[in-house]
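The protein record reproduced below.
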Amino acid sequence: MVIKYGRYGKFLACPGYPECKNAKPWVETIDVPCPNCGGKVQIRKTKKKRTYYICENNPESCNYISWNKPKLGEKWNPEEKAEVEEKKKPAKKKKMAKKKK
């Protein structure tokens, strides 16, 4: 297997392409464990080249995914963030009907 560069970044592939079409993704990990389950955290990129961090056990048993790099010893609770976002939402204003003359 050889490291090749494609449209969305690095990947592993056979050196003799026409005969062998085997390819695998290039997986980058960091040394910080997942704040949710303790698994390895992978670094991935979106199509727009933005980096995000995801647990290797996602979506089977862990739902950790973040734009920010996890810190050592950090605990992750998505429920707390959802509660904070709900409190920040402003109340909807009622529309007033126009009067007809």
Observations:
- The two ends are 79 Å apart (CA to CA).
- The first helix runs from residue 78 to 88.
- The beta strands are 2-6, 9-13, 23-25, 28-33, 40-45, 51-55, 65-66.
- The helical segments are 78-88.
